[in-house]
C-alpha cells in the first residue's frame, strides 16, 4: 500500500471508503501531532508503529502539512468518526462482533447500549472500563484478555489514550486469537456514550477540533497542545529541509 514519510513513521495513503472496504485484519492506529512528538523519544511506542498493519492519518493538521510533501494524503480520517462509519458499514454483518475496552466506569457500557440501539442489533457484544493504571497490573490484564475472549468479539476497540492503548494491544494481541481487528481510538468510547461531545462540524472541517477540545478541557489539554505538540513543527521543518534524523535509526 502507498504511504508517505512523516518524521520517523510511514502513514498510509488511503481514503475512509477504501479503509472500510479493506480493514478486515490487523491493528489500526491513527497518528496525530501528539503521536508524532511522542514518537521522537518513546522507543516502545515507535516499535508498536513498526508492527501495526494499519497506520492512518487521524489529524487534519497532518493532512494539511502533507500538502508540503512530494506526495500528500487524500484526507484525514479521525478515529472517532471512522469508528461510527465502521459499525454502520457492518450493521448488517452478523459476523462483526465488537468489544469496547476503555473510558471511565460505566461509560463503555453506555456506549455499547447507544451503538446497539443505533444499529438495531447487538453488534457490540461486550464492554468494560478498566481501572486506572490497569496496564501495570498483570492480574487485571489477564482478566481483561479472558473477558474479551469469552465475549466472542472479533473486533476490539481500546480507548485508554496513547501510547498506553497501542502498547497494550501489541502486548496482548496474540493472546486473543478470536480478535481479527484491533483499533486504538482514544476518546471514541466517550464520544459514543455521549459523555464527551465532538467539535461542531465547522470546527472539524477547518482543522480546529483540537482547539475546541482545549477550550472544553483546558487543564488537561493546554500543555499538550500549546507546549508539547509545538515541537512537531520544529521536527517537520527539519524534514522539509532534509536534515531530520530518526532518533531510533543508527
Features of the shown structure:
250 residues; alpha/beta; 6-stranded parallel β-sheet; 13 helices; 8 strands; 46% helix; globular
Compact summary:
This protein is 46% helix and 13% strand.
Describe this structure in words.
By secondary structure, the chain is an alpha/beta fold. Helices cover 46% and strands 13% of the residues. It contains 13 helices and eight strands. It has helices at 16-22, 33-38, 43-51, 60-65, 79-89, 107-119, 138-151, 164-172, 188-193, 201-205, 209-216, 218-228, 231-240, and strands at residues 3-6, 9-12, 26-29, 54-55, 98-102, 124-128, 155-159, 181-184. The strands form two sheets. It has a six-stranded parallel sheet, with helices on both faces. A two-stranded antiparallel sheet has the order 1-2. β7, α8 and β8 form a beta-alpha-beta unit. α11 crosses α12. The longest helix has 14 residues, at 138-151. It is globular, with a radius of gyration of 18 Å.
